Amino acid sequence: MAERPLDVIHKSLEKDVLVLLKRGGEIRGKLIGYDIHLNVVLANADLIQDSEVVKSYGKIVVRGDNVLAISPVEIE
Q1: pTM, full prediction
Q2: Domains in the chain with CATH codes
C-alpha cells in the first residue's frame, strides 16, 4: 500500500525539516508537531531568505495555508 502524505510527515517528527513558504522564504527547524491542515510546530527554527538566516525562533507555529512543501534536512 502506498504511503499517505501525513504518514511521510509523521516519520519526520523530532527530525530537522525545511518548510518552504508560499511567499518565498524558508524555515528550518525540528518538527515537533503537525495537524491535518499542515499547521506545523518547529523548535529551534530559523527563517532563511536568500540562503542566509534572517531571524531565529525558539518555537514557531507555521500555518498550513503558508506551507508550500516540507522536506527532511541533513544538518552538517
Answers
A1: 0.87
A2: 5-72 (2.30.30.100)
